[in-house]
Amino acid sequence: MVAYFQNPLNIYITAMAAAFLLGLVHKLGKMASLTLFYGALTMMAAVTLGSALSLSQPLIIQTAGFIAPLSINLQFGYYEAFFTICVNIAALLGGLYLYDYLKDSVLARALFLMLVVGINGMIMTRDLFNLFIFIEITSIATYGLIGLDRNIKALSAGFKYILAGGMISAFFLLGTALTYYKTGTLNIDQIIAMKDVLQDPIGLTAITLLLTALLIELKPFPANGWGLDVYQGSNAGIAAMISVGVSTGALFALYKLLPLFPAQHMGIISGIGLATFFFSNLMGLKQTDAKRMLGYSSIGQMGLVLLALSFFHTAPLTMFLGIVGGLFLNHFLAKAALFWIAGIVKKDHIKEWGILSQSKMLTVVFIIAVFALIGLPPFPGFWAKWQFIMVLGSGNHTFIIAAILIGSLFEAVYLLRWFNYVLAGSEEKLACEKSKRVPVLIFGLITAFISALLIKSSLGPQSSIYFFPIAFAVILMFVGNFIPTKLRALFAISGISYLSYYVQMNVSGLNLIFAQMFLWGGMILSIATFYKTKAKPATYGLLFLMLASLGGLVLSRTTLEFFFCWEIMTLASYLLVISGKNAKKAALTYITFSLGSAAFLMAGFALSNSLTLMGLAALPSSQATIVFTLLALGFLIKMGAFGVHIWVPGAYAEAEDDISAFIAAILSKAGVFGLFVIAIYMQSTISNSTLAYSLGWLGILTATFGALMAAFQEDIKKLLAYSSMGQMGYVIAAVALMSHLGWVTALYLSINHILYKSLLFLSVAGVIYRVNTREMYKMGGLIKKMPISFISAMMAIIAMSGVPPLTGFGGKWLMYTALIEKGWHLQAALAFFASGIAFLYMYRLVHSIFLGQAKPEHKDVKEAPLWLIIPQVIFMGLMMVGSTLPRLWVEKLSVAVGEFMPSTLTWSGQTATTSLGYWNGFMVMNIVGVIFVIVLIFLLLTFQKVQKVKQFNIVFAGERPFTPETTHVAYNMYAPVQKALGGWVKPRATAFWDGVTEWSHTLSHMFAGIYTGNGQTYLFFILLFFLMLNFLIGAN
Amino acid sequence: MIKRFFIALSLIILAGTFAKVVYNFVPNTELTNVAKHYVQHGTQELGATNLVTAVVVTYRGLDTLGEVVVLFISAAGVGLLLRRRKNDLVTKEEKRTEPSFLVQSVAEILVPLIFMLGAYIFLNGHLTPGGGFQGGAVIASGTMLLFLAAPYKHLNHGVLTALESISGFAYVLIGILGVTLLGAGHFIDNRFLPLGELGTLLSAGAIPIIYIIIGLKVGTELSVVLEDMREE
Amino acid sequence: MGLYLNQYPLASIVLITGFMMILIGLWGMLTKTNIIKIIISITVVETGVNVILVSIGYIQGRTAPILDTAVLQIDALSRVVDPIPSALVLTSIVIGLGTTALMLSYVIKMYRVRQSLNIEDFGVLKW
Questions:
Q1: Which range, of A7-16, A621-630, A829-838, B191-200, averages the lowest pLDDT?
Q2: Does A529 lie in the same domain as A467?
Q3: Nearest 10 degrees: CA dihedral of A302, A308, A313, A317?
Q4: Which of A481, A345, A490, A499 is nearest to A422 (CA)?
Q5: Which residues on adjacent β-strands are paired with residue A74?
């Protein structure tokens, strides 16, 4: 009995015996034949697993009592085991999924079993003609199953498939015949051993024919129109089997025959894979039909696997499975789940997919699958893609890297757009049978399980640092439904505190400073989240995940760890942003840019050829320049630098109000940290280079335009968003100075930014919570209603503007000193101008919200909730201490930077001295304090003289304005300034990116035009594909 | 027109490739190594005088099993597409032309003969040209004639399915018998039965049995396909 | 090298015929709009491939690989043609039969839905 489970031949025997018997058994009743069918599928999966587990060395199975080449042999080695396990598990679950479809037709069940036999055969057989037969079995079974839906879509798709299949089999058989003619054998191993014989016109034609046939099975661009139609037209369960089963067979068959392909022409295969990946994803952009979109994605992913195969088909097992296997597994798990979900939703147009959101479980699997396809961690595709790109980087395949990364970005865009429609929700009821839900769930769990294993195995000994926080976050997300909000928050905060303790124990210097920024800042801000009575179930898990990934960023030593944390951060923050009420569109922009940023990072790390961050220091300068540029672009996108800032307002404004604070205050520092990391390691190359100089200008421009755009915002959160962008500009410029004082300034400004942006966002969160609007002109006079919020905002603004006595003053002083010390006078002037502009929006903020008279509808407004006030008080306290005793912390910054370059800042008491002058925070605070008290007393004495009028008691020209608020000065406050300077802030960047979007969609449409829907056109493309391949191989 | 031009052009290029193959083609003057083994040892090893049969049934027996599967699933596919389902609208049966007296009476005589010829072909597959597939096809042609002679007569689906089902299963079973009786690596080996005297009907081990099974399976399957197509 | 038409007329002629059939079949597949004609074209291509298979197994002046009284065991090596291509052709014919049957069933159903046999009427899915 045990022997039964250890012999892969029993997969065939079981399936065939069952399939043949089904007809007879069916006479005994439907139950009997259903039992037989599912029993057989289970046994097949069990035999595969059993055989794989008992495998000590590749198993060769002879048949008919003769040794190959006299008879046909099968092979079951590690590679075969991997792919057959995938296929047979998918078959078992796919069979279960298709229960509804198969239960009424015994013929369909037989076909399904034989389909699985065919795929297994394609994987295991070592005989060329036998391979042909198994390809035919697979194809014919598929044709039959597609025909079960007898509607016009399925029929015409199925027929096109048959036409293509007919051409494929003619090619393959002809190739087989010619191969036999040249080699005198049909055994694949022998043929490969004799491949030199095939280096003449006949042999090469034979190889081309065989490879064309197998490649076409993988649906390469552009000879794949029929495949798309099949994905769209057939039943989702069948489409899933085609996507993950039939393609697997074809892929493995190709892998077997790849050694025949002349090595010098392997680039052709790579090219085909790359083109397929790129163009499929490009064309996917325009898709609105869910299954066709999945078709494009499927074809694209197989293209990527093909590309990887062309590079690693001779690689050792672990590398092969790590890259090719990983990419394949990723596609396999995600695509099966998505096709199955498509069959449950039963909506063609993605706009109607809101219905899916009624099932939380399915939505979770959906998002897992989508993230896996995009290549986000910790899903299998992430690790495989990383390894792959790194290898490509070490081979300097820049073009391929670029194409892969851009193609991936296209895929991300259309998949996430789809996700947005899912989130839109729907009134309609989602009907879902258990038989369909279970396979989806199991695939979701398998994906999660494999991802967990991959974290463990890919990150090495350090992995538990990354594994446990993720596990904790996931648990926190899933218990979200069962435990009260406050308790979840408590868990999250204690998690963060432990993490912050752990991280601080393990880092020092600059990293410690950043760890404290991220985690302490995060911890204090977390208190604010208590103000919401009801948070979404996943919020705290995600919040924790985001902060943990920032902690991980600080801890990471290798580029992989860094990138892993970076991507987890992207993922978590995206999900946080998208949980805002109207955040879907903004979140899409945000994630698109974030993934773009990640793509730059990946390219940068790949081209650096370095496994560790430390290794970046050892790059020769020409290489370092490129690597620095790429990495810096990645970080700059995340910081919202000028030109790539268009995601900033949306993401900041549309996220939930307390989340916005996290994003603005904490998350934006991740980019700063990244910039620091590369600036430190590549210091020698970058110092005094044009690169640093340009970076400096970019920072100044970002500061100027951020301030300008902030001034013209009516939406309070958008104002704050642009303000953040502007403030980050100063930081960029300060880092670019590449001097001790510059870096201290950058750190100082970053910490200061955390303090005042937290205050502002929290204060504003309270205001929005009370007045329910983000339009500033609708507010006003809240100073009396919300005094603490006012003080908080006021202090923040003082700190931001850089006037004494608060922390901002020191920052500005350091910055101008550093700029002038470096000799960047023009930049200093512009920075000064930007600060002037900044006053405009700061004044607007305070004036519109807090000053003036309260609107009548706000007469009952109360102070912000206590939970929002507490963190504000803490931050205010910190700010007071920091302003009065600057040495307490600025010296630490100075020392930390001093590790990398000689210090130019000296201290005596609270007085900091540079080559240009000195600053004593303590003294400034005292002087200003005295002046403040004097002015306050004066104001209190004169306050009685103020006379109040009714604010909107306005009639002019005999008319009463319809919306009196718009006549108030707060409305469109800087119209005159806008007239003068508005030309500068025309949305050029937005227009540019809109143009990019427009163009890619146009291209998408243009290329998709080749898929005319006519079966003959598709055939013609297949013929042309062969001729092209033949030409390319024959050319040399 | 332009489309046709491009098609013609690419076919001409393809013809060029083919011409290159033809130009370089040197017809074989000797058997390949594998074929040599079959020719030299095939008859002793398997007991079949028809070497094509030896190759088809035993040496490349896995192919043949696959071939049976292909036929089986094609028939299933046809059935799936054409057979009426529960919720299909029942259309009125079309009026079929009554066959002529000649067809009816000739069919009465010929059909049994055709069936017999089919049986003869698959029974002697190991000795003379022919075999299970050919025999099965002949039997199906008998069925075809039956349909022509009696357009309103239905085949007994139950019996056909049972026959088809059992013969398919039996084929797999015989394959397994090779493994159980002769050991691993002997799947679909015909030698678990004695090879007998070369050239006689009861020789070549299990080959005649396999061909009977295949003949029955192919015959019934093709008949079912014909029936399905007629009934549509 | 070179065209061996003179030396081995049969095999070469059959080979050329096979290739011609493939080309003719492909022309039909790509230009005929009637689905039935397309299916016929496909079978022509398939037959062409089979013909080529046969020609590859053929050896000038030899006979079928059946070792009865006419061809004795002893000189079989020099008397019979290659049995393998014959076996392959047999299989390939059966497969061809299967696909053709399936295609025709599709056509029957497609005709029922659209009342047309023109392939251009079945382009419902595109782009």
A1: B191-200
A2: yes
A3: -100
A4: A345
A5: A61, A125
Whether A640 and A772 share a structural domain: yes
Domain ranges of chain C: 9-122
Residue bearing the bigger pLDDT, A462 or A43: A43
Domain count for chain A: 2
- Residues 57-76 in B contacting A (C-alpha not used; CB under 8 Å): 58-63, 65-67, 69-70, 72-74, 76
| Residue from A719, A707, A699, A839 nearest A779 by CA | A719
Cis peptide before A222 (omega within 30 of 0): yes
| Residue A578: inside a domain | yes
Q: How confident is the model at residue C1 (pLDDT cuts 50, 70, 90)?
A: very low
Nearest CB to B49: which of C4, C67, C82?
C67
Prediction ipTM score: 0.96
d(CA A843, CA A825): 27
Report chain A's mean pLDDT, rounded to a whole number: 91
pLDDT at A581: 87
Contact B23 C3 (CB under 8 A): yes
String of DSSP letters for C56-89:
HH--TT-B-SB-SSSS-STTGGGTB--HHHHHHH
For A890-932, what is each residue's pLDDT tens digit?
A: 999 999 999 999 988 888 888 888 888 888 888 888 898 899 8
End-to-end distance of chain B based on CA atoms, in angstroms? 38
What residue type is assigned to position A550 of the chain? L
Residues 6+ apart with CB under 8 A from C111: C117
Question: C-side interface with A, Cβ within 8 Å?
Answer: 22, 26, 29-31, 33, 35, 38, 42, 45-46, 49, 52-53, 56, 84-85, 88, 91-92, 95, 98-99, 102-103, 105-107, 109-110, 113-114, 119-120, 122-127
Residues 6+ apart with CB under 8 A from A982: A712
Q: Provide the pairing of β-strand A59-62 with A73-76.
A: antiparallel
Token pair, residue A103, equals 């239960």
Q: Could you tell me if B113 and B138 are in contact, meaning their C-beta atoms sit under 8 angstroms apart?
A: no
Measured between beta carbons, which residues in chain C are less than 8 angstroms from residue B124?
Answer: none
Give the domain-ending residue among A427, A458, A489: A458
Which of C31, C88, C122 is facing A159, going by the closest CB pair?
C122
Helix (H) or strand (E) holding A759: helix A740-771
**CATH number for the domain formed by residue range(s) C9-122:** 1.10.287.3510
User: CB distance B158–A27 less than 8 Å?
Assistant: yes
A177·C56 Cβ contact <8 A: yes
- Please, what is the Cα angle at A651 between A646 and A655, to 5 degrees? 165
Structure tokens belonging to residue A815: 């910055």
Euclidean distance between CA atoms B160 and A231, whole angstroms: 35
* B81-122 residue pLDDT tens: 988 776 666 555 566 777 888 888 888 899 999 999 999 998
* Pair (A778, A665) in one structural domain: yes
User: What range defines the domain where residue A386 resides?
Assistant: 292-304+324-458
User: Looking at A458, A479, A510, which one is the last position of a domain?
Assistant: A458
Q: Are residues A684 and A797 in the same domain?
A: yes
- Do A492 and A447 belong to one domain? no
- C-chain CB neighbours of A176 within 8 Å are 88
C19 close to B (CB below 8 A): yes
Subunits with 3+ Cβ pairs within 8 Å of C are A, B
Contact C35/C6 with Cβ under 8 angstroms? no
Average pLDDT over residues A614-619: 91
